Amino acid sequence: MIKKAIEESIRVKQKFLNDISLLMLVKSAAEYCIEALEQDGKILLCGNGGSASDAQHIAAELSGRFQYDRKPLYAEALHVNTSFLTAVANDYSYDVVYSRMVEAAGRPGDVLIALSTSGNSANVVNAVKQAKKQHMITIGLTGAGGGLLAKLCELCIQVPSENTARIQETHILIGHVICEKIEKTIFPQ
């Protein structure tokens, strides 16, 4: 079982690696982020469950540090304010917890990275819709097919798998690659 899971993870990543169009999407995603950050913008991220953890992980790599010491970058996962999240879910609906925060924090030229293995999570989809209204750049990280996010986002990186664990493992790899490109471009050593 252990060997099979690791082999499956490697197969998904190898399939991703062999798809030049997917690699170009990762490059474009990093370039959008770099442009926003260089213009004093920010990167907002959202997702549910493991995707929320990945969103927070990527935000921490950017706002803290990734591979070396440098100035912090403005990146934030939208679920980290639990009082806001639970109040909005209770008073309105869980479907709008991220779109309300995007409405409050997002500015034209900022980037929203929306993580959803299915591409159909209502609160994530609504966040993208709100971000587009505010002239933000929207980047989706999904699994195969891309769901609604594939149609809504300027750029949607679809991991070639339908297995949630394998998709999330690849999402964090993509996140790390984007962080590395951002860090080395904005803060070259």
Could you characterize what this model shows?
The radius of gyration is 16 Å and the shape is globular. The mean pLDDT is 97. Helix content is 58%, strand content 12%. With 189 residues, the chain is an alpha/beta fold. Helix 2 (20-38) crosses helix 8 (164-186). The longest helix has 23 residues, at 164-186. The protein has a 5-stranded parallel beta sheet with strand order 2-1-3-4-5, sandwiched between helices. The protein starts with a helix and ends with a helix. Helix 7 (147-152) links the parallel strand 4 and strand 5 (155-158).
Compact description:
This protein has 189 residues and is of the alpha/beta class. The chain has eight helices and five strands; from the N terminus they run ααβαβααβαβαβα.
Percent range for β-strand residues: 5-15%
Radius of gyration based on Cα positions: 16 Å
Shape designation: globular
Helix content: 55-70%
Derived structural class: alpha/beta
Q: Sheet bearing the most strands, described?
A: 5 strands, parallel
Order of helices and strands: HHEHEHHEHEHEH
pLDDT averaged residue by residue = 97
Write down how many β-strands occur, each being a DSSP E stretch of 2 or more residues: 5
Number of alpha- plus pi-helical segments = 8
- Write out the strand line-up for the largest beta sheet, numbering strands in chain order: 2-1-3-4-5
Low-pLDDT residue spans: none
What distance separates the N and C termini?
42 Å
